[in-house]
Specification:
The structure is a single chain. The protein is mostly helical. It has 3 helices and no strands. Helix 1 runs antiparallel to helix 2. It starts with a helix and ends with a helix. The model has no long low-confidence stretch (mean pLDDT 81).
């Protein structure tokens, strides 16, 4: 009986090793797929961050330009232009940061949700 077990032990170990190798290969395949998917997502996320930074810079330039233009119109025609007041109110509503705020502080204020 012990001799039969020992005689069958070799094929059992070979079969178990083959099965484990098959499972390991499958896991490796799945891991590589998941890893490549995460790398793709990370790359797209980095591209989104870069695009958002560019857009934020462009938007900031537009807002500052509007503030400067409004200030100049107010200097030329103080308090009479209703459209200028409406634009100023919209800017205050959607961009509550005062244009005289230092850039570093303004950047920190924008991070507050």
């Amino acid at each position: 009986m012990a001799r039969d077990f020992i005689a069958n032990l070799g094929p059992i170990l070979i079969a178990a090793t083959g099965f484990l190798a098959l499972i390991g290969g499958g896991l490796r395949f799945v891991w590589k797929k998941v890893e490549s998917r995460f790398e793709g997502i990370e790359q797209k996320l980095a591209e989104c961050h870069e695009r958002d930074e560019r857009k934020d810079g462009q938007l900031e330039a537009v807002v500052w330009s509007l503030h400067l233009t409004i200030d100049e119109i107010e200097r030329i025609d103080p308090g009479r232009n209703r459209t200028v007041q409406e634009v100023r109110d919209l800017l205050r509503l959607y961009f509550p940061i005062d244009p005289n705020t230092p850039a570093a502080m303004a950047a920190l204020l924008r991070r507050i949700p």
